[in-house]
Amino acid sequence: MLCCMPGVAFVPALLVSWSSAAFIISYAIAVLAGHVEPFVPYISDTGTKPPESGVFGFMSNISALLASITMYIRYLLIEKQNESSHFVRSSCNMFTLCVGLMGCTGMGIVATFQELAVPSVHDIGALVAFGSGVLYITLQSIISYKSCPRWNTYFVCHIRMAISVISCIAFIPMIVFASKISMTKIDWTPGEKDYTYHFMSAICEWTVAFGFIFFFLTFIRDFQRFSVRISTEIHEE
């Protein structure tokens, strides 16, 4: 049996669309329900209380799955290109995939363990998701430069590296400011203790999150030239 998919650009496109919707829908429900202030809450704050917690958990887990599939296809694409060009070591490509899958696991932890229910597990998951995610897009940016000019244009490489740099810059203050917050809560109001730390950390968090989304958006064109063939052989004895 041979199943052929001519082009897989729909995978990163679906990932970008679904992830954007996950953030926006859970945010809108949380704000309309009065659970968070509309001005820059943490992403996790918008998925902590019912009913938005169910939407956030379900959609985020699907996003983690789509991201895993996208990363694996990207790995296969680089392996195929590398057969003729030899622009990157296979071990480096595999390491990059493992880093990305680790980030997806962290996202699954964030979606499953709500911020107020199990804060320590949630925070570890968030740290793994954002840290691995930033490292993954940085490594992918470097690999993209190595594949120029045959497999990528320098324009696309510059965009990917710019997104990676911005995400790296935002990731550090996100962690620093979050570490200075002395309480775990979601209903922040301006002027209260630690609000400034929360506000700055939340801005950085949204920056990194949408950095990931825009980065995967750049995969769409590459995936248009790639098809996945799955072959299953059945032997009778």
TrEMBL record:
GO terms for biological process: regulation of autophagy. InterPro entries: CWH43_N, DRAM/TMEM150_Autophagy_Mod. Keywords: Membrane, Transmembrane, Transmembrane helix. Pfam families: Frag1 (PF10277). Its main location: membrane. The keyword Membrane applies. It is a multi-pass membrane protein. One of its GO terms (cellular component) is lysosome. It comes from the Eukaryota. The chain crosses the membrane at residues 54-73, 94-112, 124-143, 155-177, 197-220. Residues 8-225 form the CWH43-like N-terminal domain. It is found in: Endomembrane system. Belongs to the DRAM/TMEM150 family. This is DRAM1 protein. The gene is Dram1.
